Amino acid sequence: WNQKSATGLGQAKLNWINLGHATNADVKQWIGAYTFADIFDRADPVGDDCPPGFASINAGHEDGDHQCLRLRDVNADGNVDALDEVIASRLETRRWAAIEGGTTEFRKMEGITFDPDHGRLYLAISEVDRGMLDFGRVGKPSPYSVYDAGGANHVRLEKGNVCGGVYAMDVDGSYTATTMYGVLAGVPLTMDYGADMQSPTYDGTNKCDLDGIANPDNLTYMPGYDTLIIGEDTGSGHQNDMVWALNLTSGVLTRIETTPYGSETTSPYFYPNINGFAYLMSVVQHPYGESDQMELEPGSGDERGYTGYIGPFPAMDGDRGKPHHGVGHGHWDRKR
Questions:
Q1: Taking the CB of the first residue and of the last residue of the chain, which one, N or C, has fewer CB atoms within 10 A?
Q2: Domain edge (last residue) among 51, 77, 99
Q3: Total number of domains constituting the chain
Q4: 31: domain range?
């Protein structure tokens, strides 16, 4: 992440670091043979620095963690060499990526999908906070060093947004992402979610605006329709998790599904042509499982999940998609 803008969700040019090559068979063998103590020596930090010979990183996700690490002779062949680096890159990917100069500050990456119409990837980041700020955290006095101390601090956004956002990444002819920038952000209503002051529209329950996204999770793109589908996995952002359709030309965001209390939207996926029709799949996971258990009527069975589809849509012709004529509706089944 080579930052070009700190405003909003930020913008960056992306460079990629080669972490070597390994096969599934290699990794399966290494998993059973090596532990963290076999891979790294660890020393205590000295302020924001590390003792000589140790790399300083902050590869923590939840609580931040300034670490001082040195690669060991993992396979005990008498040399600290490229094979040891590859083993570290597979068994301790986040730490080794940080040592090699990779960006490990994102909070927190979720779903990803490819848009063949525009040559883009879309990535959901459920919360824009912690390591993505410049020595900060939403709701905490600045500077707040836990997530950046000892690390590269590549991502230095001006403000956090616990409602999250969706990023686009342009890809080149070899399908390598070259840029990353925000396309849609949730709107926080409370200061602990990133608002400058509590919004008068805050209802005491939904900390993100109901006309926008909260904690985006799974994504899918609908080729030929210029539409990105965004599913939520939120707690206090929205009491009812939602699925949205974002028209990428007009920018219009439309809520197309709302789920029961305490559930999570999962598995939205667009199938462009099944027997002459297209379908948008959707799953509702664990109703009343994460919150609002008191609203569940005993014996009702309403805690069971749902799986179903929206459609059929006109099927798509060719790789880029040209719709046939068709009729759409929805169908839902309960998971037993």
A1: C
A2: 99
A3: 2
A4: 18-99
Give the integer Cα–Cα distance in Å for 224 and 206.
Answer: 34
Convert the pLDDT of each residue in 233-280 to its tens digit: 999 999 999 999 999 999 999 999 999 998 999 999 999 999 999 999
Out of 68, 99, 130, pick the residue that ends a domain: 99
Tell me, yes or no, whether 199 and 293 share the same domain.
Answer: yes
> Position 119: which residue type?
G
Q: Which residues of 214-252 are buried (b: 16+ CB within 10 A; e: fewer)?
A: bbbbbbbbbbbbbbbbbbbbbebbbbbbbbbbbebeeee
Rounded Cα gap, residues 111 and 175, in angstroms: 18
b/e sequence 315-326, b meaning 16+ C-beta within 10 Å: bbeeeebeeeee
DSSP state of 171: B
Residue 59's pLDDT is what?
81
- Tell me the C-alpha to C-alpha distance, in Å, between residue 118 and each of 78, 122, 224, 228, 272: 50, 11, 11, 12, 17
Task: Judge if 180 and 263 occupy the same domain.
Answer: yes
CA dihedral 308, 309, 310, 315 (to 10 degrees): -170
**What gap in Å lies between CA 13 and CA 102, rounded to an integer?**
13
Angle at 268 between CA 309 and CA 261, to 5 degrees: 85
Tokens (6 digits) for 135 = 């020595």
Tens of pLDDT, residue by residue over 154-198, are 999 999 999 999 999 999 999 999 999 999 999 999 999 999 999
Q: What pTM was computed for the model?
A: 0.91
Is residue 239 a contact partner of residue 292, using CB atoms and an 8 Å limit? yes
Written as one string, the DSSP assignment of 87-115 is HHHHHSHHHHHHHTT-----S-EEEEEEE
What is the enclosing helix (H) or strand (E) of 77? none
Helix residue spans in the chain (DSSP H): 24-31, 36-39, 82-91, 93-99
- The two three-digit tokens of residue 107, written as one number: 């909070």
Counting every residue written for the chain, the total comes to: 336
